Amino acid sequence: MGWSEWLNFVSKSSAILFSTTSGSFLVTITTGLLMLIHTSSTRQPRHNHMNFHPVTKPILVILLASLLSIHFSHKPVFATNAQKVGSVTGLPIPRFVSLSADKVNVRHGPGQSFPIAWVYQRKGYPVEIIDEWVNWRKIRDPESEGLEGWIITGLLVGKRTGFVKRDLAPIRDQASQHARTIALAGQSLIVRLDSCGREFCYVHVDDTKGWVAKSDLLGTHPQEIFGR
Predict the structure, then answer these.
(1) How many Å apart are CA 210 and CA 201, to the nearest integer?
(2) What is residue 69's predicted lDDT score, i.e. its pLDDT?
(3) DSSP code of 69?
(4) How many structural domains does the chain have?
């Protein structure tokens, strides 16, 4: 099925927001006419924002063993009811931040001498800080189970963003599953999180604003409430 045929199935009162290799596009359907705004050629595939650094097999085995040792020697982040705070900033651990550059190296340890584990290629992508060391932050990737590494603080910002984890996630005009759908967010789209309640987050991307179910987003904890 081609794009034009597929778009005919979309509600004529909704917009579709998709993530692409160079941004996003918004498709609106008004009085039967298609309007394409801010478009680029291809959809962004899953994990396209990450580029794993090539290493030789012996080094990879050693690094994997080291990571497994670190993983099993630390207590779970949510091991107690008391809120853990960072040893450097005093801010809550874990907490979400976002990438401030289009290219961000993630290292196996807190220093430039440690080898690069992978490279992010997506400004605004949310990551979870789980530890602090001087001007380095240990992060966990929200999309990949158990993937952790270190990023220098200059490449992180406190701006809250969300990563849409399923295709055609509804953006609604109110924080309710029964509210009117005003747009549909494509998988891998990055949205700005203005606030989050128990079940919905108020987001905006370009000129589109509305409510998205927390279950459709990466970049926020299930019980986290902030903003409005």
Answers:
(1) 8
(2) 39
(3) H
(4) 2
Residue 87 clears pLDDT 80, i.e. is over it: yes
What is the value of pTM for the model shown? 0.71
Name the amino acid, one letter, at 4. S
- Reduced to 3 states (helix: H, G, I; strand: E, B; else coil), residue 1 is coil
Helix (H/G/I), strand (E/B), else coil: 95? strand
**What CATH number is given to the structural domain containing 56?**
2.30.30.40
Q: Is residue 196 part of a domain?
A: no
User: Tokens at residue 142, please?
Assistant: 């929200």
Q: What is the pLDDT of residues 166-217, one digit of tens each?
A: 999 999 999 999 999 999 999 999 999 999 999 999 999 999 999 999 999 9
Residue-range definition of the domain harbouring residue 132: 50-159
Which residue in 154, 101, 160 sits closest to 127, CA to CA? Answer: 160
Buried b (16+ CB within 10 A) or exposed e, 104-130: bbbbbbbeeebebbbebbbbbbbbbbb
**Residue 47's pLDDT is what?**
59
Chain mean pLDDT for the chain: 76
Query: How would you classify the pairing of strands 169-172 and 104-107?
Result: unpaired
Q: Are residue 119 and residue 37 in the same domain, yes or no?
A: no
Q: Is residue 30 part of a domain?
A: yes
